[in-house]
Amino acid sequence: MIDFVKSGHGEWVDDANTRCRILWRKPEQLASDIYEWAEKNGYINSVCTVFELHSGEDVNGMSFEGADEELLRRALSILEKG
Fold first, then answer.
1. pLDDT value of residue 82
2. pLDDT at position 30
3. Which residues contact 8 (CB under 8 A, 6 or more apart)?
4. What is the pTM of this model?
5. How far apart are alpha carbons 12 and 18 in whole angstroms?
6. What CA–CA distance (Å, rounded) separates 68 from 46?
7. Cα 12 to the chain's mean position, in Å?
8. Is residue 24's pLDDT more than 90?
């Protein structure tokens, strides 16, 4: 688990480091994927819900389809700052 955390593909869920969330893709990677998808599909400066990004018809096969909601929100937060 320590290697996952060191590489950025894992994060401790508790202070005692007994539970670890494994990240298939880092929030920064998902943010980039979401932006590329939005640009390609004309969604820049449009409103999409987290549900649409998670389960919408337009996201079939995308890396963020079905992603953990918290992870999606973190990726969106990165995009808001950018």
1. 76
2. 95
3. 23, 26
4. 0.83
5. 7
6. 22
7. 17
8. no
Look at residues 78, 82, 75 and name the one whose alpha carbon lies nearest to residue 59: 75
**Tokens 């298939």 belong to which residue?**
24
Secondary structure in 3-state letters for the chain: CHHHHHHCCEEECCCCCCCEEECCCCHHHHHHHHHHHHHHCCCCCCCCCHHHHHHCHHHCCCCCCCCCHHHHHHHHHHHHHC
